[in-house]
Write a structure and sequence with these properties.
The protein has 283 residues and is of the alpha+beta class. It is built from five helices and 15 strands.
Length: 283
Protein backbone atom coordinates (compact mmCIF):
# COMPACT_ATOMS: atom_id res chain seq x y z
CA UNK A 1 0.00 0.00 0.00
CA UNK A 2 1.29 3.47 -0.85
CA UNK A 3 2.29 5.62 2.06
CA UNK A 4 0.76 8.62 0.24
CA UNK A 5 -2.87 7.38 0.50
CA UNK A 6 -5.21 10.07 1.80
CA UNK A 7 -5.14 10.39 5.61
CA UNK A 8 -8.97 10.38 5.55
CA UNK A 9 -8.99 6.59 5.20
CA UNK A 10 -6.94 6.25 8.38
CA UNK A 11 -9.49 8.33 10.29
CA UNK A 12 -12.39 6.24 9.01
CA UNK A 13 -10.72 3.01 10.03
CA UNK A 14 -9.91 4.46 13.46
CA UNK A 15 -13.48 5.58 13.99
CA UNK A 16 -14.90 2.22 13.00
CA UNK A 17 -12.54 0.44 15.40
CA UNK A 18 -13.52 2.74 18.26
CA UNK A 19 -17.21 2.06 17.60
CA UNK A 20 -17.11 -1.63 16.84
CA UNK A 21 -14.00 -3.28 18.29
CA UNK A 22 -13.71 -4.76 21.75
CA UNK A 23 -13.16 -2.17 24.50
CA UNK A 24 -9.48 -1.36 24.81
CA UNK A 25 -7.10 1.42 25.78
CA UNK A 26 -7.55 4.42 23.40
CA UNK A 27 -4.64 5.11 21.04
CA UNK A 28 -2.00 7.51 22.24
CA UNK A 29 -2.88 10.07 19.52
CA UNK A 30 -6.67 9.94 19.13
CA UNK A 31 -8.30 11.40 16.06
CA UNK A 32 -11.10 13.95 16.21
CA UNK A 33 -13.79 11.27 16.50
CA UNK A 34 -12.16 9.39 19.39
CA UNK A 35 -11.29 12.57 21.21
CA UNK A 36 -14.96 13.12 22.06
CA UNK A 37 -15.59 9.46 23.01
CA UNK A 38 -15.09 8.79 26.76
CA UNK A 39 -12.96 5.83 27.71
CA UNK A 40 -14.97 2.87 29.03
CA UNK A 41 -13.42 0.91 31.92
CA UNK A 42 -13.47 -2.86 31.75
CA UNK A 43 -16.11 -4.52 33.95
CA UNK A 44 -14.69 -6.17 37.11
CA UNK A 45 -14.31 -9.94 36.97
CA UNK A 46 -17.17 -11.89 38.48
CA UNK A 47 -16.33 -13.70 41.76
CA UNK A 48 -15.85 -17.44 41.49
CA UNK A 49 -18.66 -18.14 43.93
CA UNK A 50 -21.85 -16.27 44.74
CA UNK A 51 -22.76 -15.24 48.26
CA UNK A 52 -25.08 -17.67 50.07
CA UNK A 53 -28.72 -16.72 49.94
CA UNK A 54 -30.08 -15.39 53.24
CA UNK A 55 -32.81 -18.03 53.23
CA UNK A 56 -30.37 -20.94 53.14
CA UNK A 57 -28.03 -19.53 55.77
CA UNK A 58 -30.85 -18.45 58.10
CA UNK A 59 -32.82 -21.69 57.73
CA UNK A 60 -29.80 -23.82 58.64
CA UNK A 61 -29.30 -21.92 61.91
CA UNK A 62 -33.00 -21.60 62.76
CA UNK A 63 -33.64 -25.35 62.90
CA UNK A 64 -32.56 -28.57 64.57
CA UNK A 65 -31.98 -31.19 61.86
CA UNK A 66 -32.92 -34.83 62.52
CA UNK A 67 -31.51 -37.49 60.22
CA UNK A 68 -34.16 -39.20 58.08
CA UNK A 69 -32.16 -41.21 55.52
CA UNK A 70 -28.59 -42.03 54.52
CA UNK A 71 -27.67 -43.58 51.17
CA UNK A 72 -24.42 -44.35 49.35
CA UNK A 73 -23.55 -43.49 45.76
CA UNK A 74 -25.54 -46.51 44.53
CA UNK A 75 -28.66 -45.47 46.44
CA UNK A 76 -28.28 -48.16 49.11
CA UNK A 77 -29.12 -47.33 52.72
CA UNK A 78 -26.17 -46.86 55.12
CA UNK A 79 -27.14 -48.55 58.37
CA UNK A 80 -24.21 -47.11 60.35
CA UNK A 81 -25.96 -43.74 60.61
CA UNK A 82 -28.85 -45.27 62.59
CA UNK A 83 -27.35 -46.90 65.71
CA UNK A 84 -30.51 -46.77 67.85
CA UNK A 85 -34.05 -46.46 66.46
CA UNK A 86 -35.35 -44.56 69.51
CA UNK A 87 -32.66 -41.85 69.38
CA UNK A 88 -32.02 -40.60 65.84
CA UNK A 89 -28.89 -38.59 65.11
CA UNK A 90 -28.81 -35.15 63.59
CA UNK A 91 -26.88 -31.92 63.08
CA UNK A 92 -27.16 -28.39 64.36
CA UNK A 93 -25.69 -25.17 62.92
CA UNK A 94 -24.69 -22.14 65.01
CA UNK A 95 -22.00 -19.45 64.94
CA UNK A 96 -20.20 -20.91 61.92
CA UNK A 97 -19.96 -24.40 63.40
CA UNK A 98 -22.00 -27.55 62.97
CA UNK A 99 -22.34 -30.19 65.66
CA UNK A 100 -23.56 -33.77 65.54
CA UNK A 101 -26.41 -34.64 67.92
CA UNK A 102 -27.48 -38.02 69.24
CA UNK A 103 -24.11 -39.71 69.03
CA UNK A 104 -21.75 -40.92 71.74
CA UNK A 105 -18.92 -38.39 71.45
CA UNK A 106 -19.40 -34.67 71.05
CA UNK A 107 -18.43 -33.82 67.47
CA UNK A 108 -18.27 -30.44 65.75
CA UNK A 109 -16.61 -28.75 62.79
CA UNK A 110 -16.50 -25.35 61.15
CA UNK A 111 -18.58 -24.74 58.04
CA UNK A 112 -18.97 -22.02 55.41
CA UNK A 113 -21.57 -21.65 52.70
CA UNK A 114 -19.76 -21.01 49.43
CA UNK A 115 -23.09 -20.26 47.79
CA UNK A 116 -26.67 -21.43 48.19
CA UNK A 117 -25.76 -24.93 46.93
CA UNK A 118 -22.29 -25.64 48.36
CA UNK A 119 -20.92 -25.95 51.88
CA UNK A 120 -17.26 -26.19 52.87
CA UNK A 121 -16.67 -28.19 56.07
CA UNK A 122 -13.37 -27.81 57.91
CA UNK A 123 -11.45 -30.37 59.96
CA UNK A 124 -13.71 -31.57 62.78
CA UNK A 125 -13.04 -32.18 66.46
CA UNK A 126 -14.43 -34.87 68.76
CA UNK A 127 -14.20 -36.07 72.32
CA UNK A 128 -12.57 -39.47 72.74
CA UNK A 129 -14.90 -41.42 75.01
CA UNK A 130 -15.17 -45.19 74.74
CA UNK A 131 -18.50 -45.94 73.08
CA UNK A 132 -20.64 -49.01 72.35
CA UNK A 133 -19.81 -50.38 68.87
CA UNK A 134 -22.97 -49.15 67.16
CA UNK A 135 -22.57 -45.60 68.46
CA UNK A 136 -18.83 -45.64 67.69
CA UNK A 137 -19.61 -46.66 64.10
CA UNK A 138 -22.17 -43.88 63.80
CA UNK A 139 -19.67 -41.31 65.05
CA UNK A 140 -17.10 -42.56 62.53
CA UNK A 141 -19.64 -42.43 59.68
CA UNK A 142 -20.51 -38.80 60.45
CA UNK A 143 -16.85 -37.83 60.84
CA UNK A 144 -16.07 -39.30 57.41
CA UNK A 145 -19.07 -37.68 55.73
CA UNK A 146 -18.70 -34.18 57.19
CA UNK A 147 -15.48 -33.23 55.39
CA UNK A 148 -14.60 -31.17 52.34
CA UNK A 149 -17.19 -29.66 50.03
CA UNK A 150 -20.79 -30.84 50.33
CA UNK A 151 -23.71 -30.09 48.08
CA UNK A 152 -26.51 -28.54 50.15
CA UNK A 153 -30.21 -28.06 49.38
CA UNK A 154 -32.91 -26.66 51.68
CA UNK A 155 -36.47 -27.41 50.62
CA UNK A 156 -39.98 -27.32 52.03
CA UNK A 157 -41.94 -24.68 53.86
CA UNK A 158 -40.97 -22.54 56.83
CA UNK A 159 -41.62 -24.45 60.05
CA UNK A 160 -41.15 -27.84 58.34
CA UNK A 161 -38.06 -27.63 56.10
CA UNK A 162 -35.94 -30.45 54.74
CA UNK A 163 -32.16 -30.50 54.28
CA UNK A 164 -30.14 -32.61 51.86
CA UNK A 165 -26.36 -32.91 52.06
CA UNK A 166 -24.41 -34.81 49.40
CA UNK A 167 -20.70 -35.71 49.37
CA UNK A 168 -18.40 -36.04 46.37
CA UNK A 169 -18.69 -39.85 46.41
CA UNK A 170 -22.47 -39.63 45.95
CA UNK A 171 -23.46 -40.48 49.53
CA UNK A 172 -26.43 -38.39 50.66
CA UNK A 173 -27.98 -37.54 54.02
CA UNK A 174 -31.47 -36.06 54.35
CA UNK A 175 -32.83 -34.34 57.45
CA UNK A 176 -36.11 -32.90 58.67
CA UNK A 177 -35.99 -29.59 60.51
CA UNK A 178 -37.78 -28.33 63.61
CA UNK A 179 -37.36 -24.79 64.97
CA UNK A 180 -34.69 -24.35 67.63
CA UNK A 181 -35.70 -23.02 71.06
CA UNK A 182 -34.06 -19.72 70.10
CA UNK A 183 -36.34 -19.55 67.07
CA UNK A 184 -39.45 -20.50 69.02
CA UNK A 185 -38.83 -18.10 71.89
CA UNK A 186 -37.53 -15.21 69.81
CA UNK A 187 -34.02 -14.89 71.20
CA UNK A 188 -31.10 -16.56 72.94
CA UNK A 189 -31.62 -18.17 76.32
CA UNK A 190 -29.43 -17.84 79.38
CA UNK A 191 -27.26 -20.68 80.70
CA UNK A 192 -28.20 -22.20 84.04
CA UNK A 193 -27.39 -25.33 86.06
CA UNK A 194 -30.06 -27.39 87.80
CA UNK A 195 -29.80 -30.36 90.11
CA UNK A 196 -32.70 -32.74 89.53
CA UNK A 197 -34.03 -34.71 92.49
CA UNK A 198 -34.62 -38.45 92.00
CA UNK A 199 -37.98 -37.90 93.70
CA UNK A 200 -40.40 -36.36 91.18
CA UNK A 201 -43.32 -34.12 92.04
CA UNK A 202 -46.91 -34.83 91.00
CA UNK A 203 -47.57 -34.01 87.36
CA UNK A 204 -50.54 -31.69 86.74
CA UNK A 205 -52.06 -34.20 84.29
CA UNK A 206 -51.31 -37.78 83.16
CA UNK A 207 -50.36 -36.57 79.68
CA UNK A 208 -48.15 -33.72 80.95
CA UNK A 209 -44.34 -33.88 80.98
CA UNK A 210 -42.83 -35.35 84.15
CA UNK A 211 -42.92 -32.84 86.99
CA UNK A 212 -39.40 -32.40 88.35
CA UNK A 213 -38.05 -31.20 91.67
CA UNK A 214 -34.98 -29.05 90.97
CA UNK A 215 -32.67 -26.59 92.66
CA UNK A 216 -30.18 -24.11 91.25
CA UNK A 217 -26.49 -24.99 91.24
CA UNK A 218 -23.51 -22.73 90.57
CA UNK A 219 -20.13 -23.42 88.97
CA UNK A 220 -17.07 -21.22 88.49
CA UNK A 221 -15.12 -20.62 85.28
CA UNK A 222 -13.09 -23.79 85.88
CA UNK A 223 -16.24 -25.91 86.15
CA UNK A 224 -15.94 -26.37 89.92
CA UNK A 225 -19.02 -26.21 92.13
CA UNK A 226 -19.33 -22.91 93.98
CA UNK A 227 -21.78 -21.15 96.24
CA UNK A 228 -24.74 -22.68 98.03
CA UNK A 229 -27.41 -24.68 96.15
CA UNK A 230 -30.81 -23.03 95.95
CA UNK A 231 -34.05 -24.23 97.48
CA UNK A 232 -35.86 -27.19 95.96
CA UNK A 233 -38.77 -26.17 93.75
CA UNK A 234 -41.17 -27.85 91.36
CA UNK A 235 -40.98 -27.61 87.57
CA UNK A 236 -44.44 -28.79 86.45
CA UNK A 237 -43.42 -28.53 82.77
CA UNK A 238 -40.14 -30.37 83.33
CA UNK A 239 -37.05 -29.76 81.18
CA UNK A 240 -37.41 -30.07 77.42
CA UNK A 241 -35.22 -32.89 76.10
CA UNK A 242 -34.60 -34.39 79.55
CA UNK A 243 -36.04 -37.64 80.87
CA UNK A 244 -35.30 -38.76 84.46
CA UNK A 245 -33.65 -42.15 84.92
CA UNK A 246 -34.67 -44.39 87.81
CA UNK A 247 -31.88 -44.74 90.37
CA UNK A 248 -29.92 -41.73 89.07
CA UNK A 249 -29.61 -38.14 90.19
CA UNK A 250 -28.38 -35.58 87.66
CA UNK A 251 -26.97 -32.09 87.48
CA UNK A 252 -27.81 -30.61 84.08
CA UNK A 253 -26.79 -27.59 82.09
CA UNK A 254 -29.84 -25.95 80.55
CA UNK A 255 -30.90 -22.97 78.48
CA UNK A 256 -33.44 -20.83 80.26
CA UNK A 257 -36.03 -18.93 78.24
CA UNK A 258 -38.46 -16.43 79.72
CA UNK A 259 -41.92 -16.04 78.22
CA UNK A 260 -44.00 -12.95 78.83
CA UNK A 261 -47.05 -13.52 81.00
CA UNK A 262 -50.56 -13.15 79.61
CA UNK A 263 -53.40 -11.09 81.03
CA UNK A 264 -51.23 -9.56 83.74
CA UNK A 265 -49.66 -12.84 84.82
CA UNK A 266 -46.00 -13.05 85.75
CA UNK A 267 -43.48 -14.23 83.12
CA UNK A 268 -42.94 -17.99 82.91
CA UNK A 269 -39.70 -19.94 82.53
CA UNK A 270 -38.96 -22.66 80.01
CA UNK A 271 -35.87 -24.87 80.34
CA UNK A 272 -34.20 -26.83 77.52
CA UNK A 273 -31.55 -29.49 78.20
CA UNK A 274 -28.08 -28.64 76.98
CA UNK A 275 -25.92 -31.27 78.72
CA UNK A 276 -25.95 -33.70 81.66
CA UNK A 277 -22.76 -32.79 83.55
CA UNK A 278 -23.06 -34.99 86.66
CA UNK A 279 -24.65 -38.39 87.33
CA UNK A 280 -24.91 -39.97 90.76
CA UNK A 281 -26.35 -43.39 91.55
CA UNK A 282 -28.97 -43.41 94.31
CA UNK A 283 -30.61 -46.29 96.15
Amino acid sequence: MSLHRPYRLVLVVTALCVAGCARSTPPESPGPESATTPAVASAPAEPSTAAPTPDTAATLVANLWQLQSATDGAGQSIAAFFPTPDKPMGVQFADGRLSVTGGCNRMNAGYQLLDSAQMQVSQGMSTMMACPPLLANADAAFAKFLTGTLQVAVEGEAGAPHLRLAAADGSTLTFSGTPTPETRFGGPGTRAFLEVSPEPCVAPAPSAPPCLMVRDRHFDEKGLASGTPGEWRALPEGIEGYAPVAGEQHVVRVKRFEQAGTAGNAPTEHFVLDLIIETRTVQ
